[in-house]
Design a protein that fits this description.
Low-confidence stretches: 1-50, 56-85, 321-325
Number of strands: 32
CATH topology: Methylamine Dehydrogenase, Chain H
Distance between the termini: 53 Å
Shape: globular
Strand order of the largest sheet: 1-2-32-31
Largest sheet: 4 strands, mixed
CATH class: Mainly Beta
Number of domains: 1
């Protein structure tokens, strides 16, 4: 009997050693997920030089965030591997800031000296190339437009002259479009609208810099373009005006002081102030408040789709009016103000890191123990249901950003400087 027991003990020990050796080959960090799919845990580690180190490719297990005031989310549908459906992501160990995945390339910022430069590369790390030695560019179709800065030589003025330039999406064909410095530019169809310091009306030119012409639109700073109309504020009457792209069909709207235009739907324009969210028709009629701000809260709209307006109230509890000890209540409502619903209460999210796709809201959040740095990636359905934590890192790493490419979610992580 003792011999049989001894054989069983040896067999169990050998089985445990075998399982442990298999787990080591997966190279999946313990902080990444709470469970992984047995069919999707093959490591995709590539070159250790300039190419990204892919830590692991996993299907995230269902986990729930412990944010204050949150309702318990419904359990996401499970697939055959007992993991939430359509939650496949890859962790990348890279000290970069992802900007956009476009046409087979990842565009990202990387520090060169003390400045961020724009690069691009394939998802496997190949073909890395510097596109611009600056940041802040805007992509319009397959061309990047950006400001080229030249210091102002003056004993009394400190600043830069800004010149509109363009470069092809692959980094070729750099060109300065204007010899005149400008203050602002925006796109509408095949034209760039821009403002020149000292001029009382806006200008426009074609995307390649040709057909430069002065318009009759009285804009000195800022060009708000929504759809086929341009919105601007005149200094002589302090009212918002809007015209067609050719300057015709001018209409006037009276809005509260400090109003900020945030989007349009049909013949309505939406706006926000420090006190409320509202809408008004282009011709100035049918003014309506849609939502009033609560006391000691900051109000901001962060997304508008074809059906809903998404916004938050950030409650400030600190006596010095900082964001310490604050909570953020996320709401949505229909365009006419009906159907108001509180979706969730964030207490540690970075509100500048919210992302919408067709079905979900994604957010980057700090850890529950209050450590500085982004530690978790959380998502929920656009109606507030199916909330789940996709990644929850330990103190040794933090999340820099994320992007979607070819049906998968890529999450960029880097060592924490505070670890």
């Amino acid at each position: 009997m003792k011999k049989i027991s001894l054989v069983l003990v040896i067999f169990i020990l050998l089985s445990l050693v075998s399982c442990g050796s298999k787990k080591k080959n997966l190279k999946i960090p313990s902080e990444a997920v709470s469970a992984v799919s047995s069919e999707e845990t093959e490591s995709e580690v590539v070159s250790e030089t300039s190419e990204p180190e892919v830590v692991s490719e996993v299907s995230a297990a269902s986990s729930q965030s412990g944010a204050t005031g949150a309702k318990t989310p419904s359990t996401p549908p499970k697939n055959s591997n007992n993991t939430p459906a359509e939650t496949r992501f890859t962790l990348l160990n890279m000290d970069i800031v992802p900007k956009e995945y476009y046409n087979g390339w990842l565009y990202f910022y990387e520090m060169v000296g003390e400045k961020q430069h724009l690069f691009r590369m394939r998802l496997d790390g190949s073909g890395k190339k510097e596109i611009l030695n600056t940041n802040g560019e805007q992509r319009h179709r397959d061309v990047l437009y950006y400001f080229e800065h030249e210091p102002i030589v003056s004993d009394t003025i400190v600043g830069n002259y800004n010149y509109i330039c363009k470069v092809n999406i692959d980094g070729t064909g750099k060109k300065r479009l204007l010899a005149t410095p400008v203050a602002y530019f925006n796109f509408a169809g095949d034209f760039i609208y821009y403002c020149v310091n000292g001029e009382d009306t806006a200008f426009r030119m074609r995307l390649d810099g040709t057909q430069q012409e002065k318009t009759s639109i009285p804009i000195q700073w800022g060009v708000n373009i929504f759809g086929e109309r341009i919105f601007f504020k005149r200094s002589d009457d302090n009212k918002f005006h809007n015209v067609r792209l050719d300057g015709s069909d001018e209409k006037i709207m009276s809005l509260p002081e400090g109003a900020k235009l945030i989007g349009t739907s049909g013949d309505y324009v939406f706006f926000e102030t420090s006190a409320h969210i509202g809408r008004i028709k282009f011709d100035g009629t049918d003014y309506k408040k849609l939502f009033d701000r609560a006391e000691r809260a900051m109000l901001m709209v962060f997304h508008i789709d074809k059906d809903f307006i998404y916004f938050f109230q950030h409650f400030i509890y600190s006596p010095i009016f900082t964001f310490d000890f604050s909570t953020c209540h996320v709401f949505r409502m229909k365009h006419d103000g009906t159907g108001l619903k509180e979706l969730y209460v964030f207490d540690k999210t970075d509100l500048n890191r919210l992302y919408f796709d067709s079905d979900y809201i994604f957010s980057l959040e700090s850890s529950d123990d209050g450590m500085v740095g982004i530690k978790a990636l959380v998502r929920m359905a656009k109606d507030g249901s199916k909330r789940e934590t996709l990644v929850d890192l330990d103190k040794k790493k933090h999340i820099i950003g994320y992007f979607f490419a070819e049906g998968k979610l890529y999450i960029v992580v880097a060592p924490s400087y505070l670890a």
